């Protein structure tokens, strides 16, 4: 028996099917757009590679039922009825969100020969669930083989063959580390072999977290809960962020950090508990540290829990957890809270297209985690030593970055010309990288 569908799931699937198989509706006045070197062709895939994975949203007993996160093209339900911009977004929906934005992209072509890049609307992160948590757990080396066969043999192989996949790209809504099992691993560890398959070596993969070495991986921002539908809503939020009174020096929203072993999260928790007892010594802050306990995933779909404290803090601590990157980095930027990083892999070595690597000192603070964990460096001391006017300048830079890390709402009236969001920047970066890759291959 097929799993029961919620009405919103069915709606989303019908919408997807109608847009993928028939006409593409452009939201922008694209006759004004210069599409030179920007044309993208979308490969048609059978539904088992995307929409069928959504109908199966409740069939992974060891994983959470993700049906509640499907409405609004993957943005999830609104946080409350009256909001225009705030949703209970699950980062796993990045593949769905991106796909829908792609359907609105102003330079789509139906002629693959005209395209600079070929988008593969495959929901690889969702497809991986059956290998990671489902019945295919012993076949994780097969993840991607079916897709490769389809792209290169079954459906118009000439599209693949033209550049042997070098012009293809796809999005994976999980860390690249979840797809790096060597094919021969027996018994397999956690993860599938998708990014280890030679079949996909030529394909650009946009992931939530990339590994440092493979050239074809690029990290793009995690989707946050903020998806404004127009310039008006973006600007009124930015004004609120600018006006917000920052009465807390630093805040930390996370679970974990309770193990007995020394690690950065533990050090932060201990320091935070310790400093909150201290009285304010003319720093201008009424609170030196606020800890928001997000254990057991209580914050994941409830942005109010952490956005309010982030709006009231000058600095937001972003230590690595199980993996180096955090969605919270982007939440804090949206709140105008200056991120404090403890290793370069958390952001600097990941999101070069969205947050330029050479500008980190302007909008973030770096404190090596070893200094804190093993040498007793107090984070509070470092942050308090930064002069007030420098803190203000950094916050202004954070707010300048804000539009670059949001995924605006589908069908929004926000003109491309006015502002580039995370999607636009990811597509631009992908087009450039594919173009230079094709030049490289041609010259070999
Ligand atoms: C969805 O679930 C059904 C029943 O478990 C399974 O037969 C089918 O292959 C699944 N589809 C996809 C695309 O995973
Ligand atoms: C939100 O709107 C829905 C449908 O219009 C309604 O059923 C629900 O009661 C509303 N919730 C609140 C909290 O107002
Ligand atoms: C996977 O392999 C292990 C070890 O051989 C076995 O115990 C387990 O039942 C298998 N799982 C599935 C879902 O086939
Ligand atoms: C990837 O590209 C190289 C040439 O750069 C080619 O030799 C190889 O066959 C391609 N791989 C696939 C799976 O098409
Ligand atoms: C707590 O604060 C005191 C006074 O500043 C300091 O000496 C001590 O090292 C702190 N302890 C921790 C665990 O941070």
Question: What does this 3D model show about the protein?
Answer:
This protein is an alpha/beta fold. It folds into 2 domains: 7-224 and 411-443, no CATH class; 232-405, 3-Layer(aba) Sandwich (Rossmann fold). It is built from 16 helices and 10 strands. The chain has helices at residues 7-21, 51-55, 94-103, 124-127, 129-132, 145-154, 157-163, 231-243, 264-275, 304-311, 328-334, 360-363, 369-373, 379-384, 388-405, 422-443, and strands at residues 40-42, 117-119, 168-175, 204-209, 217-219, 248-254, 287-293, 313-318, 338-341, 365-366. The strands form 2 sheets. The protein has a 5-stranded parallel β-sheet. Strands 7-6-8-9-10 form a 5-stranded parallel β-sheet, with helices on both faces. Helix 11 (328-334) links the parallel strand 8 (313-318) and strand 9 (338-341). Helix 6 (145-154) crosses helix 7 (157-163) and helix 8 packs antiparallel against helix 15 (388-405). The longest helix is centred in the C-terminal third of the chain and has 22 residues, at 422-443. Residues 1-31 have low confidence and may be disordered. One 2-acetamido-2-deoxy-beta-D-glucopyranose binds next to helix 2.
Q: What's the structural blueprint in terms of helices and strands?
A:
Layout: H1 7-21, E1 40-42, H2 51-55, H3 94-103, E2 117-119, H4 124-127, H5 129-132, H6 145-154, H7 157-163, E3 168-175, E4 204-209, E5 217-219, H8 231-243, E6 248-254, H9 264-275, E7 287-293, H10 304-311, E8 313-318, H11 328-334, E9 338-341, H12 360-363, E10 365-366, H13 369-373, H14 379-384, H15 388-405, H16 422-443
Parallel strand pairs: 1-2, 2-3, 3-4, 4-5, 6-7, 6-8, 8-9, 9-10
The structure holds 2-acetamido-2-deoxy-beta-D-glucopyranose (NAG) (5 copies).
Protein name: Glycosyltransferase
Membrane topology: Single-pass type II membrane protein
Subcellular location: Golgi apparatus membrane
């Amino acid at each position: 028996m097929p799993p029961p569908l919620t009405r919103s799931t069915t709606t989303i699937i019908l919408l997807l099917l109608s847009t993928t198989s028939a006409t593409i509706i452009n939201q922008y006045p694209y006759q004004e757009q210069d599409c030179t070197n920007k044309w993208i062709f979308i490969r048609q895939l059978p539904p088992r590679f995307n929409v069928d994975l959504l109908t199966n949203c409740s069939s992974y007993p060891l994983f959470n039922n993700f049906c509640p996160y499907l409405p609004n093209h993957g943005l999830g339900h609104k946080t409350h009825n009256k909001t225009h911009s705030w949703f209970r977004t699950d980062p796993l929906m990045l593949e769905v969100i991106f796909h829908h934005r792609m359907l609105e992209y102003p330079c789509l072509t139906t002629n693959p020969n005209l395209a600079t890049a070929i988008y593969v609307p495959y929901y690889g992160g969702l497809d991986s669930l059956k290998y990671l948590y489902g019945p295919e757990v012993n076949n994780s080396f097969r993840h991607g083989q079916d897709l490769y066969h389809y792209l290169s043999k079954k459906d118009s192989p000439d599209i693949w063959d033209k550049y042997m996949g070098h012009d293809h790209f796809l999005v994976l809504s999980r860390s690249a580390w979840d797809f790096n099992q060597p094919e021969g691993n027996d018994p397999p560890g956690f993860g599938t072999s998708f990014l280890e398959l030679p079949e996909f070596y030529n394909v650009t993969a946009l992931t939530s977290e990339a590994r440092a070495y493979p050239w074809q991986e690029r990290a793009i921002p995690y989707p946050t809960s903020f998806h404004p539908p127009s310039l008006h809503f973006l600007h009124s939020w930015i004004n609120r962020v600018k006006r917000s009174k920052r009465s807390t020096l630093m805040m930390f929203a996370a679970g974990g950090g309770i193990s007995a072993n020394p690690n950065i999260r533990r050090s932060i928790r201990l320091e935070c508990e310790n400093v909150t007892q201290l009285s304010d010594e003319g720093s201008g802050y009424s609170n030196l540290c606020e800890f928001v306990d997000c254990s057991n995933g209580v914050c994941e779909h409830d942005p109010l829990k952490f956005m309010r404290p982030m709006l009231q803090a000058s600095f937001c601590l972003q230590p690595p957890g199980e993996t180096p990157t955090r969605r919270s980095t982007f939440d804090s930027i949206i709140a105008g809270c200056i991120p404090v990083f403890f290793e370069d892999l958390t952001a600097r070595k990941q999101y070069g297209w969205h947050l330029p690597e050479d500008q980190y000192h302007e909008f973030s603070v770096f404190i090596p985690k070893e200094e804190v964990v093993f040498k007793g460096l107090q984070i509070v001391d470092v942050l308090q030593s930064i002069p007030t006017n420098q803190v203000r300048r950094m916050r202004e830079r954070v707010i300048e970055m804000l539009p670059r890390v949001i995924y605006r709402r589908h069908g929004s009236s926000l003109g491309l010309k006015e502002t580039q969001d995370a999607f636009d920047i990811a597509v631009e970066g992908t087009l450039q990288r594919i173009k230079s890759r094709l030049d490289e291959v041609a010259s070999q």
